[in-house]
Each structure stands twice: as structure tokens, then as C-alpha cells.
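Hi support team,

I submitted a single chain yesterday and got back a structure, but I'm not sure I'm reading the C-alpha cell output correctly. Could someone confirm the output below corresponds to the sequence I sent? I've pasted both exactly as they appear in my results page.

Thanks,
R.
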Amino acid sequence: MQTIGERLEEARKTKGISIREAAEANKVRGDYLHKFESNQFDINLPDIYVRGFLRNYARYLGLNPDKIVNDFAALGHGTPHRPLSREGYGRMDISVSTSSKDNLDPEPQAEAEEGESDEENPATFKPRTGALPYVDKALLLKGGLLLAAVAALVTLVVLGARSFSSAEPAPGAEPAATVAAEVPQITFVALGTVRIKVVRESDQEELYQGTLVRGESRSFERGSRLLVTADARENLEVEVDGRRFPTGLTGYGRFNVD
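Hi R., thanks for writing in. Yes, this is the structure output for that exact sequence:
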């Protein structure tokens, strides 16, 4: 039985197409296509992109794209995309209840799932002669995050120095009699990539909507019940009074936290 790479290479050569021509037609880097034909699928990109590239390349060569993607998944490199399930709604130990699907904006992943790569894709092929040089957007993103972290650190140092100076009592002044109590917090900690939306139940004000990656967290004042919608609830933990609690839920859904 032929491997995935052997089928791709045989179909391309039968049609008399070069790697360069195939790369330009599919907007995929030529070295990726060469690796696919050599059965090397570790190209330092998420499986969702690899499946999309394989699907487009197979369709371009006149092969069955579903067969190619399923054979790729059978190798253990990835699994075919499944829509978010509404099942698995449940309750948490800390005032968690279920509700119907909220209007949380889904991640724009359908196009990437189908492998529709374009100029905005982080793994686009090398540009033609005379075009602008290829820029690794992942590298730019890392550089931007690093600069933002440095700026944040400098800001914290400056604010800390100002706070320390303002906290020094004037000569002869009496120390403050009381200290304002710290406001209780509820913190959501990401165990993996998860997109969440947090709404305060009392006035339906949206407090936050966005994607958290592993290790990131968001804190909110405790006092009013929070309605939380997440697309991967198993990747989220809730921290209350210094203690963390798993949601105990999976998949897409909403739960409440007091």
C-alpha cells in the first residue's frame, strides 16, 4: 500500500508538475510540499494547517482529499475537525449552572480547517522574485510580545518607585489609622488555549471577551455572579480565595461563578 507521500509524488509527476509550480498554485512553501512527499509532516505548524495544506494539495493533484486527510490522522498526527458540541453541560461545586449557547464569537478556524491558505497565513510560501521579502509573522508576534513585556516591566518599576515615595510619611505625621481592605477576586486560569466571555449577571455588562493561552489568567471583583462562556471548558480553572477549582466540564458551554 502506497504511503501518503508516494501518492502525492506519483500524482504530481504523472501530471508533469514541478514542486515550484505546485507551490505557487497552492500558495504553500515548496519545502513543505517536498516534505509531504517524503512523508515528513513535522513542519513546526499546528495540525490544523498541515491538514489544510494536505487537503488543498490532494485536491490540486486530483486525489481524494478526505482520504489523504484521514490517512494523515490515522498516523496519529492530528484528528479531523469536529464542530463544537453542545453536550457536556453540567455544574461546578462553586455555584455553577448551565445555560443555552451564548453569542460568544467563535474563533475563525473554519477556513484554516479547510486549508484555505492565503497571504495572511503564517506559513505562506516564499514570494516570487521582485515581491516583498517573506516575513515570519510568528517571529514578529514574539518580538512584539517581548517589547510589550519590557514596556510593562518598566512601567511597573516607575509606578512602584512613585508609590514608595508617596507612601513615606511626612516628618511628624501620624501613620494611617486604617488600611483599605483588599477587594476579593475571582481569577480564571488557562490550562490550555481557551476563548472565554465573562458577563456580570447583575447588569449584563460584558467584562471580558478574548482568548487565553496556557498560563494566562484574568481576575474580576467578587461580589456579583459572573456568567462565563468558554469554548473549551476543560482548559479553564477558577481560583477563589487562593484555591483553584477545575470546572469539571468539557467542550463549549456556559457556567456561573459566584
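A quick pointer for reading it: Residues 79-120, 176-180 have pLDDT under 50 and may be disordered. Let us know if anything else looks off.

Best,
Support desk
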